[in-house]
Design brief:
By secondary structure, the chain is of the alpha/beta class. 45% of the residues lie in helices and 21% in strands. Strands 10-11-13-14-15-16-17-18 form an 8-stranded mixed β-barrel, surrounded by 4 helices. The protein has a 5-stranded mixed beta sheet with strand order 4-5-3-8-9. A two-stranded antiparallel ribbon has the order 1-2.
Length: 466
């Protein structure tokens, strides 16, 4: 088996560390860092032995970045805190002698090694995270060093150096926000879908007119009419075709394009509502709001300005997990929205970590039961109990209830008997672009659908879950 061996340069490491510890701190530390940074790719004396073989063909990179540097600076002083990254690198070198370890910035460490497959990548990430989890002995005292960790690896035929560097940097950025290690197995990616290229395209998608909206109606069961609709943003990419929100919304959140995308959505919804009103159809339309935006004061102010300048009925759908992320800011800003006449709906209820403590504080008028509890409503023993108790809870809190994912007349009938207020799903309509949605609203087929479901419902179906 052929091996490519990168030369060992332990002497260079020792010399660099000696300069850092004993010489003029600011100048020699920068020299040592430059040596380490270049050495990570085998061009300078800061690399430990690394073997690339057929047994371990994947190149894995990791970036570790200190996140509590301010606290360390107060405890240790500026000069010593600037040296902590070297302490982290030393520990990794001791634990992973075959890895190339370098300090590539004042607070950032890069680790490069070779792994055999996805399982090997996970082991590498766990060992790396474990290596830096314990406190560090800094001048005789133990101090915790908090680190964001991003790791990425993949087969050489699927990725190149640029792609790997972009992915590991993006993983590090995600780790800073999620407060935990992020590992990217690039072998799982569709080779036709370059995530980083999509991010670049997304920045210009709005200006190019590639974004569009679809609307899915919500039918009020007792009134037998369309009560409101949910606006769903879609991306029609000129090369890749239709890209679903589950693929591009996380990208928009990571690139900070989510605020611009959401403001565009609000403005487009208002324009479409005015068209509906001109045709005699005046209903509230709800826009999904990312959890990131609930603590963004600039977005909150601008969104309220846009809505206040219009005369349409608008609502925002937020998930329960987005509130739990930053409850103080989220609840305060949701009250600001409510004060501006924006209806609040809690989306995907039950899919996350539901908190009754937060639920009772939210100015919400509507609670939407996640479709995972509705899709098997007539074939499960537990889901009907969960749904019915959720409906009772929401009504006790003076909220209306919408069931998502209603696809069968039997589910509709059972929800009606349980007292569910509104239904949404493919049984009523798939999401429609504005032209088709206007046509749907003119048809008025919903009353017949609700009546038909009720007529075919057998009372025994509900007694089985009572």
């Amino acid at each position: 088996m052929a091996h490519l061996r990168v030369p060992s340069v332990q002497e260079g490491i020792a010399q660099g560390m000696a300069r850092v510890r004993t010489s003029d701190h600011s100048s020699d530390l920068s020299v040592a860092r430059r040596g380490r940074a270049a050495g990570a790719r085998g061009r300078d004396p800061r690399v430990t032995p690394t073997e690339i073989s057929l047994a371990k063909p994947w190149i894995a990179q990791a970036l570790l970045q200190l996140t509590n540097q301010a606290a360390l600076r107060r405890l240790l002083g500026v000069a010593r805190s600037n040296d902590v990254a070297l302490d982290v690198a030393d520990r990794i070198v001791a634990l992973m002698p075959d890895a190339a370890v370098s300090v590539v910035g004042r607070w950032t460490i890069e680790v490069e090694t070779c792994v055999g497959d996805a399982a090997d990548l996970d082991r590498f990430a766990k060992v790396l995270a474990g290596a830096v989890a314990e406190p560090f002995d800094l001048d005789g005292e133990n101090h915790p060093v908090d680190l964001a960790i991003g790791v990425a690896a993949g087969p050489p035929g699927l990725i190149n150096d640029v792609r790997l560097a972009e992915e590991v940097e993006d993983a590090l950025n995600q780790s800073r926000h999620e407060h935990g290690p992020v590992v990217r197995d690039l072998s799982m990616l569709d080779p036709m879908v370059d995530v980083m290229a999509l991010k670049r395209d997304l920045t210009h998608a709005i200006d190019r007119g590639e974004m569009f909206l679809q609307y899915q109606p919500k039918v009020h069961v007792r009134r037998q009419e369309v009560a409101s609709a949910e606006a769903l943003v879609r991306w029609r990419h000129p090369v890749r075709g239709l890209i679903l929100p589950s693929d591009f919304i996380p990208l928009a959140e990571s690139t900070r394009d989510i605020d611009r995308l959401t403001l565009w959505t609000i403005e487009q919804v208002i324009a479409d509502q005015q068209r509906l009103r001109a045709e005699g159809q005046d209903i509230p339309i709800f826009v999904n709001i990312s959890g990131q935006l609930l603590s963004n004061a600039k977005f909150v102010k601008r969104a309220c300005e846009i809505v206040s300048a219009s005369d349409v009925s608008l609502g925002f759908e937020i998930t329960e997990t987005s509130v739990i992320r930053d409850p103080v800011s989220a609840i305060a800003n949701l009250n600001v929205f409510a004060d501006h006449g924006i209806a609040i709906a809690i989306d995907d209820y039950g899919a996350g970590l539901s908190s009754l403590a937060y639920l009772k504080q939210l100015p919400a008028r509507e609670l939407k039961i996640d479709k995972m509890f509705v899709l098997q409503l007539t074939s499960s023993n537990r889901d009907p109990l969960i749904v019915r108790s959720t409906i009772d809870l929401a009504h006790a809190l003076e909220m209306e209830v919408t069931a998502e994912g209603v696809e069968t007349p039997a589910a509709l009938a059972l929800l009606s008997v349980m007292g569910c207020d509104m239904i949404q799903g493919y049984l009523i309509s798939r999401p429609l672009e504005i032209d088709a949605f206007c046509h749907y609203m003119r048809d008025h087929k919903d009353a017949a659908l609700v009546d038909s479901a009720r007529a075919t419902f057998r009372a025994g179906a509900f007694r089985r879950v009572a």
